[in-house]
Known about the structure:
By secondary structure, this protein is mainly alpha-helical. It is 34% helix and 7% strand. A hairpin with a 2-residue loop joins strand 3 and strand 4. Residues 1-22, 87-111 are annotated as: Disordered.
Amino acid sequence: MAVPKRKTSPMKRGFRRSADALAAPTYVEDKDSGELRRPHHVDLKTGMYRGRQILTPKNKEALASFLPRRRQTAVWQGGAKRRAAVFKDERRNAQAGTLPQDRPRFISSYE
């Protein structure tokens, strides 16, 4: 049986294991629909990719709501992380039966 000639140092062991970590997937806010999506992926709600219609959406209301949502994205200045946090708060408020009335309600595909 093969036996290592020298003990593997903690530094070498760490370098070897550095590639084993799993990174969380990143999300970006789609500039057309305002939805969160993976970078360089098709927006599954609208079927758009880089300004072109690639897929036909299964839900016809999703395509109909595409143009109004484009104008609503100017409301969100905090970026994708802020948007996700707001949707999380809205879900929590919706379950409690209270929704804030001071701003418009947006529909998320991640609910």
